Amino acid sequence: MQALCFELSGETAFFKKPDVNVYAYFTYSHIHKVALYGLLGAVLGLGGYTQQYERNMALGGKAKQDNPAMPYPEFYEVFRHASVSIVPHGDRGYFSKKIQIFNNTVGYASQEEGGVLNVREQWLERPRWTIYVADDGGVDREVFDRLADYVQHSKAEYIPYLGKNDHPATISKARLVELEPASEPEYIDSLRAAHVLVDRGGYVKDDQMQSYLQEYLPVGLNTANNGYILEPLVFSNQEIDTDELKAEDLQKIYRDADNDRTLYFI
Prior knowledge:
The chain is an alpha+beta fold. The chain has helices spanning 33-44, 49-56, 74-79, 141-152, 247-250, and strands spanning 2-9, 12-13, 84-88, 97-104, 117-125, 128-134, 170-178, 180-181, 192-193, 212-221, 228-236, 253-256, 261-264. The strands form four sheets. Strands 3-6-1-7 form a four-stranded antiparallel sheet, with helices on one face. A hairpin with a 4-residue loop joins strand 12 (253-256) and strand 13. The protein is globular and about 60 Å long.
């Protein structure tokens, strides 16, 4: 299988968790599928949530009656069936996080005296991932070819960023790679579904310190209100339990021999 591969990094990143909005805003530990789809959509100039709202709602906030409602933002409609693999490069897959405090002084953002809102956001520091976008038919041929051309030649319609426009993204080393099915995987070097278990009696890769990170991350949007659909994903350097692998898991595991990586596509 062919895939578009590139390095994705930045000085900082913020992928907001929508379920906490008291005192501070917190970030997911990694770029997730929906945010990655949004970044790819920005590269191609696809519409986002604002364009979806303008398409669906008239002035005054009433739903338009003359056009069918647009259930998803354009970027998600285009990439929703895309298979991606995300390889973290932090310390055993973990990036440092720090709370940043800044002021929002536009006035209407706060009911506090003086109209100054103290915003506290948790940011990832110097995140870097290797991203793979599978050429498996999940994205239309024309879209995939255009995306590969844009990414490989450093072109973008809109500036790609890591969660918010405070965090510009750097895309580098883009190339097309050939991947092979991994028939007998021992380790998985990307985020993977949590039901792919570790072998409790297995070894840790390359004699590293053992690590295991599990987090519920967005993997899609619902049609009701475009809320996140969450699934538990795991990153670990421990050997996996191949006896518990399901047939559908084996169809998602590929080998990048040139980079000595085993990938799980989500």
